[in-house]
Amino acid sequence: MPHINDPAVIERLMRTKGRWAIVGLTTNKWRAAYDTSLFIRDRMGMEIIPVNLPGDAVHGEQGYRSLRDIPAEKHPIDVVDCFVNSQRVGGVVDEAIAVGAKSVWLQLGVIDEAAVARAKAAGLDVVMDVCPAQQAWRYNL
Question: Among 10, 17, 47, 75, which is 20 to 30 Å from 141 by CA?
Fold first, then answer.
């Protein structure tokens, strides 16, 4: 059965202050993750953790190469926000489960029903194919 986003989960994740690991966030200003991560941090008031292959810092925030590289003092991770393509997101979701993240958010256009099923089975909240910056108006954020 295909995943259907629960509006209550979306609202809770967007309103509850927490720590968002943003996988695929780089210093490339032309990528969607760059501006969306600023929105998540500055408008929604979340702590962000950039996760990218070189482990580069972004927006003055320390970066890490993978979710597993994020130190214990930065846990728990409330949301793993996935800015990777659909073919790669399954591995990110599996890593999110392994590190004990509370939820995964697959960005607009990122779809993997099997990965979503694994996340749900592990007890994570899931949002798929949605951008928080595009949903903010619904919640007066």
Answer: 75
Supply the CATH number for residue 84's domain.
3.40.50.720
> CA dihedral defined by 72, 78, 83, 88, rounded to 10 degrees?
70
In this structure, is residue 2 part of a structural domain? no
Report if residue 115 sits inside a domain. Answer: yes
Distance CA 78, CA 116 (A): 16
**Domain that includes residue 48, residue range:** 7-139
| Tens digits of residue pLDDT in 15-65 | 999 999 999 999 999 999 999 999 999 999 999 999 999 999 999 999 999
Helix (H, G, I), strand (E, B) or coil at 92: helix
What global pTM score does this model have? 0.96
Angle at 138 between CA 136 and CA 140, to 5 degrees: 65
Domain count, the chain: 1
Question: Which residue stretches of 7-131 are H helix?
Answer: 7-15, 32-38, 86-98, 113-121
Tell me whether residue 18 is in a domain.
yes
